[in-house]
Each structure stands twice: as structure tokens, then as C-alpha cells.
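Journal club side-thread
Mid-discussion, someone asked how the predicted structure for our own chain would compare to the paper's figures. Pasting it here so we can look after the session.
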Amino acid sequence: MSDRSSRAQVRNPLLRLPAAQRIQCLPPEARQALAALLLELSRDARDHANRSWRQNKAPMAAYWKAVSVYAGHLHRITRPAKVEIETGAHALHPEQDQRRSSNEPS
């Protein structure tokens, strides 16, 4: 893989969106529940895509495949890291992190 294609933002373009970054600020428990739903959505949409393809409904197959891919991208953004689950810690939004560091006494 080239350097460009190994970057997370290239493999998952949703990571470039500010809202996707804010998702990572949610508590691990909420992210874990949301990730499970998104994974189920991705699998269901993939099944719909395969079914539509077998029925020669290419436009619907393409639609459901796109839904599946985006749900999968969102799942990967949302799922908490194992460390977050084990410790209960969660990532701060970059703005929150800056505010926290500027409020701390020097």
C-alpha cells in the first residue's frame, strides 16, 4: 500500500468531517452501542445489495451497497478502542482538549 492509501482519512473519508470527530468524544458505552447498531445496519444493507443484484436490480444494488459502505465507515469511526472500553476513558474533542489545557494552572 502506498503512503497515501494507508492514511486513515483516505480509507475512511468520513474522518475528515468535524461531526465524525465529535462522535469520538462520546462516552465509550454510547459509542459501543451505536457501533453495534451501525454494524448491523451495514450487514443488513449488504444483504439487500446482494439480493437486489441477484434480482437484476442493479440501481438498487448500488444504492444498498453504498449504504453498507457508509454504515461500515461510521461503525469504524464510532467503535471505541479496547483501551477506552477497559478504562472507561474517552477521547476529548480537540477544542475541549485545548480549553482544558488553557484552563490548567501553569
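Post-session note: Residues 93-106 have pLDDT under 50 and may be disordered.
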